[in-house]
Amino acid sequence: MTERRSPSSIWLRPEHSGTPRRPPLTIDRIVDAAVDLLDEHGIDGLTMRGLAQRLTVTATALYWHVRTKDDVLDLAMDRIFGDVPIPDATDDWPQDVRVLVRGWRSAMLRHPWAPSLVGRPMLGPNVLARTEFLQAALVRGGCRGRHLAVATRTLANYVIGASLTEATWRRTADPDARAAARDHVTAHADAYPTLTASGHLDDSRWDDDLLFEEGLDGVLRAVARHSPS
User: Which residues contact 147 (CB under 8 A, 6 or more apart)?
Assistant: First the structure.
């Protein structure tokens, strides 16, 4: 008889029915500490041992609540999504999407480690609530079936990609390094005439917020244009 294995995702496993050895340790405390560590040291800097030390508990107490680092990352990601405001639904579905996506980008930029994790299967209540709002807005815009799936993925990929690029660029916020990158392009203008003329890698030319907003407008226009209704 094959032994039944428990689900790998923390969101699909039942909660412990027993009493933990250290009652003061809760999931909320674990997630608070994990987010702090991730903000300070990134994904590679988060270890179960370091998390237990931050919480001043034993590894045994920590493992009562979470089995693996993946559990912690899933919980931390859902906490980040909880910071994304869900607006009231209106008749202006593109604006509803804009408000949600702006909040999503802001949350990702406050926690630069987050964008690279969004591709993980995410079943937390905060993630699902915001995905539900996004798709409901797109349905009000006429999206159905495959077009709804394409529109959802396109918007998600846009905000994740923009956030990841901006977060990485900001993490290397050395003005000299940025200037050197731009100078490298302009010094080879014969090879890269279009990049030189367009101001590629010149972050003083256009504001990131402006570029994000105009790109988002373009995505929404494309979604509306290809909507079946």
Answer: 226, 227, 228
Reference 32, options 101, 85, 82, 67; nearest CA is: 82
Give dist(CA 12, CA 186) in Å, integer: 53
Q: Is the pLDDT of residue 223 over 80?
A: yes
Q: What are phi and psi of 190, to 5 degrees?
A: -65, -35
**Domain 21-67: CATH superfamily, name plus number:** Homeodomain-like (1.10.10.60)
Token pair, residue 12, equals 């699909």
Place of tokens 């993980």: 120
pLDDT at 14: 67
> Domain boundaries in the chain?
21-67, 86-225
C-beta of residue 77 within 8 angstroms of C-beta of residue 124: yes
Q: Which class does domain 86-225 fall in?
A: mainly alpha
Torsion of CA 209, 214, 219, 225, to 10 degrees: 160
pLDDT digits (tens, 9 = 90+) for 32-54: 999 999 999 999 999 999 999 99
pLDDT at 140 over 70: yes
Among 69-73, 119-123, 186-190, the minimum mean pLDDT is found in 119-123
The stretches of the chain forming alpha helices (DSSP H) are 27-41, 48-55, 59-65, 69-82, 93-110, 125-140, 145-171, 175-187, 193-198, 208-225
Assigned token pair, 41: 């040291």
